[in-house]
Amino acid sequence: MTGIRRLAQQLNMSIGTVSRALNGKPDVSAETRRRVLEAAAAAGYVPNQAGRALRKGSTGVVGFMMQTGHEITGEGDVFFMSVFDGVQTVFARHQLDLVALLCSSEEDPDAYLQRVVARGFADALIISATKRQDHRIDFLASRNIPFIALGRSETDAGHPWIDLDFEGMAEVGVSRLIGKGHRRIGIFAPLDDANLGFVLVDAYRKVLARHGIDFDPSLIFRANPNERGGHAIAHAIAAMPEDRRPTGFVLTNEIMSLGFYNGLFEVGLPPGEAIAVIGRDSPQAHFLVPKLTCFRLSLRDLGITLAESLLAIMPAYAEHYPFGTTRKLASLELVEGASDCARI
User: Fold this and answer.
1) What is the residue-wise DSSP string for 183-229?
2) Smallest Cα–Cα separation from 132: which of 66, 84, 230, 202?
3) Helix, coil or strand: residue 337
4) What is the pLDDT of residue 71?
5) Domain check: are 244 and 266 in the same one?
6) Cβ neighbours, 10 Å, residue 55
7) 20 with 73, same domain?
8) Which residue range(s) make up the domain with 312?
9) CA torsion, points 326, 95, 59, 131, in degrees to nearest 10?
10) For 164-199, how does the pLDDT look when each residue is reduced to its tens digit (9 = 90+)?
11) Phi, psi of 32 (to 5 degrees)
């Protein structure tokens, strides 16, 4: 406590008062806090975070686990950066810090998470890329670690989660294309056992059945969720017999539309003419021609909701966010463009 003792002597205050001012305690006047913070900044004082964590029994850090790798995150993917912005906006209110935990695509995510938890440097966790059966959920619940999932799973520990409304995207997107005369409608699904793929395909089948259209498994196109994956789907469509090709397509990944457009132009099936396309909004998609008909969601707002819902289950912050356990679908708005042409 050498640093804080020097500050206390310099300001002629007790060590306790200086400590409470540095930690933002409410029993310190605004003027006292101002003097302490100014003196600390002038002296270049940096608190010993390890010591503070030991005394408080917490680290002030929340980890956000995401998987990385070219095949997973794609090129220029801004999804997580926008979500992070919203999350940290909330955490900053409570002097909490967000740390991205990057699990390589070549590493087992269960083993990675166990290693992170064993090191004990985070008070809570946000997990993403949820699987149909996700062992991380049971593991965190068994360790009594506060966590929230960005995505649903059949593994249920009574935990909070927020997911995109993939059912709504299937309902609105597929129904819209059917209303424009399309009967062979393709959709994208991930290559792995990500739960979103199961949710989306199930919703897609239900929409088709309600409209009296038979389900054709050849219209489910599996690829990596990146530009290359979208490009590959376009070429796979071109390789199909003309009478078996989809005439409309719904993409639920925000970055794939760029590769899909490029691939369709390459194979002579221009989007908005030969094939109707509905995708996800992204900064890059704003430059597509024809203008993409797309689903839009504020990723920053999604991050805010994610952070507030996590703090709602943490006793130190629950009084600020009396939500209980959040289980919520984030709805998306359809923005009309010129890419979802009517069937000729």
Assistant:
1) --EEEEEESS-BHHHHHHHHHHHHHHHHTT----GGGEEEE-SSHHH
2) 202
3) coil
4) 60
5) yes
6) 10
7) no
8) 61-164+299-330
9) 30
10) 999 999 999 999 999 999 999 999 999 989 999 999
11) -65, -45
Indicate whether 319 belongs to any domain. Answer: yes
For residue 324, with 0-12 CB atoms within 10 Å meaning exposed, 13-18 middle and 19 or more buried, which class applies?
Answer: exposed
Q: HSE on the CB side for 86, CA within 13 Å? A: 19
- Domain tally for the chain? 3
For residues 156 and 154, what is the distance between their CA atoms, to the nearest angstrom? 6
Kindly compute the dihedral angle of the four CA atoms of residues 44, 48, 49, 54, in this order, to the nearest 10 degrees. Answer: -160
Residue type, 292: L
Quick check: is 116 in a domain? Answer: yes
- Give a yes or no: residue 106 inside a domain: yes
First CA to last CA distance, the chain: 77
Residue with tokens 């050849």: 218
For residue 73, is pLDDT > 70? no
Q: What is the pTM of this model?
A: 0.81
**What pLDDT is recorded for position 174?**
98
Reported as a single tens digit per residue, the pLDDT across 194-238 is 999 999 999 999 999 999 999 999 999 999 999 999 999 999 999
Same domain, 119 and 235: no
CB 124 within 8 A of CB 103: no
Confidence class of residue 4 from pLDDT cuts 50, 70 and 90? confident
CATH number of the CATH domain containing 112: 3.40.50.2300
Residue 37 in any domain: the answer is yes
Separation between Cα atoms, residue 297 and residue 294, nearest integer Å: 10
Query: Which band of pLDDT confidence, cut at 50, 70 and 90, is reported for residue 67?
Result: confident
Q: How many whole angstroms separate alpha carbon 285 and alpha carbon 294? A: 9
In whole angstroms, what is the distance from residue 24 CA to residue 259 CA?
A: 49
Token pair 């993917």 is found at 77
